[in-house]
Fold each of these.
Amino acid sequence: MTGNEHGVEGGDPLLGTTLMERYHVKQKLGEGGMGSVYLATHTTLQKDVALKVLHGEYSRKPELVGRFLQEARAASRIRHQNVIDITDFGTTPQGWAFFTMERLEGKDLHELLEEERLAGRRLSWQRTKAIFLQVCSALQAAHDMGIIHRDLKPENIYLIERGGSADFVKLLDFGIAKVTDEADSPPGTPKLTKTGMLFGTPEYMSPEQAKGLKPDHRVDIYAMGCILYQMIAGKTPFSADNFMSVLTKHLTEVPEPIAAETMADIGAPMEIGRVLSLSLAKERNDRYGSIQEMAEVIREVEQGLSLTSARAAVQAKSRKWLYLAMGGLVCAAAVGGYFAVNGKAEAKQEASATKQPAIVVEKVKITINSTPVGASVTDDKGELLGVTPWSGELAKSSERRNYTLALAGHSDKSVTFAPEEKTTFNEVLSKVPQVNIASSSSSAASKRVTSSSSTAKQTVKNSKKKGSKVKTAKSKSAKSKVAKPKSSKAPEWDPGTVGLPELKNPATQR
């Protein structure tokens, strides 16, 4: 370190110094729990950079230094336009760990969402989709390198102006990223995290993270579901007063459904609600297989396809490229074998031709609509399949099935069918009649009092005629208590069962 060794008097010791004889520290931009970020200039290139330095007290802890430098290594390995560009990293002679990255001017997604909230607005679907798909692209590049982010949140999604776009995404902060491929680590390198340790921000943590289980790329898919929910609804799926209460909700509760009016206001397809359901599934096996699949489904849904059809189209594309690749390998092997041993290729083809064809299960599409929309759809076994408008592909069969539609304030309705051909049901749900209990009780009581009064008057009149003592008659009608009418209050409805159900993987629904 050269220049002013002590920085500004009474201030930060790094300000005004030159780090590693090439980074002149000019200004502090921000400070976090473990380090600070400065504006610095590369003295040779005369280029401004953002300089992140680990706090002095943490620089003496090898595990924290290792995690800090892993952020630099992880981000620098990805090399994607939507990931922050790391240009240099290391440790100074004084023992301070640091890395430099491109300087960004803009705002993070959290700031943007807060601005929209204060203005009484929400982001349009087109703007939401553009930002979200860029993050998906950056994440897929990270996952392809064996890197799991583990701390996705709006604060780590930075928006800058580039290429005519005001929402060009830069994904930040790989500080707690999990590198699944440890082949590049030097022998004897200690693990920076252990199973059971909790890392991340509670509002975006997956159920398996809350349990302390070993994470995989699907924790990022869950976090992206939380972020997409927030971008549309204006709030996170779960919130509470403390860390553990939020984690408990991730483990046990279903997010409140986003109103159809909200979807319509921002121009989002209704099927996005089911995209959220799959990405926020409690069991990771029930989520999308990759962040790329989730992004492709959103693009397909945008074209008007149902979620089931969109997933089928995306999976068909994946299989097509897999089959082409496998076919290329098979052809190459066949040609090589032909030239190596004349006649072997023909023999293999003949043997292949005698194989039994694969059994293909024919499926039919069943669609159930309801008025009003948003009714839960439950099958014969009580499994919650989704909400209306609902579509599913079932194995063709003459066996009859009975599905039930349920919506708060409405009577349940059964839909009975045999999945023999493509069918669409349009069901109208009847409202549960509301009874004014107070007026009913008052009217009934009034009638009873009038009746009792008339009976008593008649008794007195008859008694006078006979000359007997006048006694007030107490008829059975007067003695009996006023019967309370049965309550017509509709049964309480659990909103967690509508809109964002925990769906089974559509591939297993038959």
Amino acid sequence: MIEDGVDAVLETMRIASQGEVTKLERQVKALQRKVRELERSAAA
């Protein structure tokens, strides 16, 4: 109940929820790994 209200307020204010932030963190980490791999292969 309260969480639904908080989610609605965050959405109205265009602020990311904790779940969205966590998902973005995982995506950033995956991209960082990929960039490191590409940098290593380009240096070889």
Amino acid sequence: MDANQGSAPSLQVLMLEDIETDADLAQHELERGGLDVTVHRVETRPDFERALESFAPDLILCDFSLPGAFDGLAAIDLTKELSPGTPLIVLAGMVGEDRLVEAMRRGAADCVSKARLGRLVPAVKRALLEAARRRIDLQKHTGFSALDDQLRDAYADERFILHYQPRLSLETGEVCGLEALMRWSHPELGLLLADEFIPALEDSGLICEVGTWALTRAAADAGSWLSKGYSVPSVGVNVSAVQLRHDDFVEVVASAIAGRSSGVNIDLELTESVVMADIEGNARKLEALRAQGIKIALDDFGTGYSSLSYPAHLPADTLKINRAFVASMTTSPTQATIVKTIISLARCLNLRAVAEGVETYDEAKLLRDLLCDEGQGYLYSRPVPAEQVGGMLERLDAYRH
């Protein structure tokens, strides 16, 4: 499938920002992320109010710390009054956490740090999809299930695609494997991330078909890379709770990857909350798959359950540390302690520890010092479509040498 299917969305963005350079940086980030935007920048409450009354923006970006009494919170309140339903994202500089929590409580779709604008595009896509879902929910009350129809059309039209992100050894820099990340090439919203539509796929019941396709597609892509001389030790594919609940889950997985080339290894990634929903039954299924040579990774570890003892009772090979811990561990001793504890637990259980969301050299160095095995994140590579994996592997290998 073509990773560039569908045209980029054309968005009318109302930006409340008094610093022109900050506005330019935000607009550049949106355009760099593939969004076609028209930005209307205003600096004051009267201009903001007139803009809301004169046209209907698709999205509002709002600087939290404006001079004077009209701050981000006041802008949120005014938006709810004059343009209800329009998603608003706060752009924050040096703002206290309590103020950002209050912004989310009052109705901001998200808060993005000006120091980490790389997270702006995913936040925008989530906000736009959520706004679309709200509109669709209204339609559903009349019996029109538009989102289900969109998902089924996307599956039939091959608009679900896989992008791949590498995991690297923190000690040697070698590529240890790839994670397959699903995307939806939406005709209006552009390329959507998995967490923006997987819940809807689960609700629709289509997740089993799409999940099986993802396993088969990942195995085929890995075989293609292998035939071109690229060595990929393994490819991890995410599994949904809905898939795992089915009695024939083991057989479906085995059948989906049965045609893979010799030397192609497919792993499964499951969140801890998914596994814990039925720990005994799921453990039996995962053990049956491990007996067939399929490795199991517990994803987003540390976020779902307080007990650190259960991994000892599960057939797992890898613990993946949630990106939220990694993002703050260099500035928060508490988060650093949590990361250290998870890594120590993995080593005690003879599991590999993989840190997700590694974005800076400082994070990579600290993880290496804590004896974490692997890192995954934008520091090494953004997720790329299958046809770009070979070039990515060459670049990473050249950098290592």
